Amino acid sequence: MSKKQPYIIYEGNFLTEAPNYDQSINVLRFLEPDGEEYSIMVNRSFKVQDQTLEAFCENQMNFLANTLPGYENEGKMLHNQLGPEKLPVIQIANSFLDNGQRIRQVQSFVELPYHPVINPSRLNLIIFSLIAQKEFTEYQRKHYVQIINSFTPETKAL
């Protein structure tokens, strides 16, 4: 049996072996001071061996186009780096219909660095998404940028 270590979630932590893959999703819901709702979603995913970040994003966009009603890309894939670690990221804006309502999102696909337990094969990704029913406000954009630019991956062995 593998070494037990704390697994941290917002509400606390518990002891477990390191999972082979963590595909958990965090949906964080917020209200602006004026009462406008928006969400920031954090997904964990992984590429297949030898797949580029761009190819992963293209596959995701094709999947969304084939599964979400009214799906539309809104602009190009933007290549960048984010956070204190200058991690490779591709950002994509898109929208889709949910019960007849147009939902807008900006997704940031981030390649995680090597970690001996969390990412030994360098395939793991984290995806940040800003989601709103109306056009994004300056408040929402600033909050999202603050989150992605402050993201610091775990780099020390557990």
Can you walk through the features of this model?
With 158 residues, the chain is of the alpha+beta class. It has one domain: Mog1/PsbP, alpha/beta/alpha sandwich (Protein Transport Mog1p, Chain A, 3-Layer(aba) Sandwich). Helices cover 18% and strands 42% of the residues. It contains two helices and nine strands. Strands 3, 4, 5, 6, 7, 8 and 9 form a seven-stranded antiparallel β-sheet that branches. Strands 1-2 form a two-stranded antiparallel ribbon. The model has no long low-confidence stretch (mean pLDDT 92).
* CATH architectural category: 3-Layer(aba) Sandwich
Order of helices and strands: EEEEHEEEEEH
Structural class of the secondary elements? alpha+beta
Distance between the termini: 16 Å
Q: What's the count of strands? A: 9
Assign the CATH class: Alpha Beta
* Uncertain spans: none
Helix content: 10-25%
Radius of gyration: 17 Å
Strand content: 35-45%
User: What does the oligomeric state look like here?
Assistant: single chain
The largest pleated sheet is described as:
7 strands, antiparallel
- CATH level-4 homologous superfamily: Mog1/PsbP, alpha/beta/alpha sandwich
Morphology call: globular
Stated plainly, the CATH topology is called Protein Transport Mog1p, Chain A
Number of helices: 2
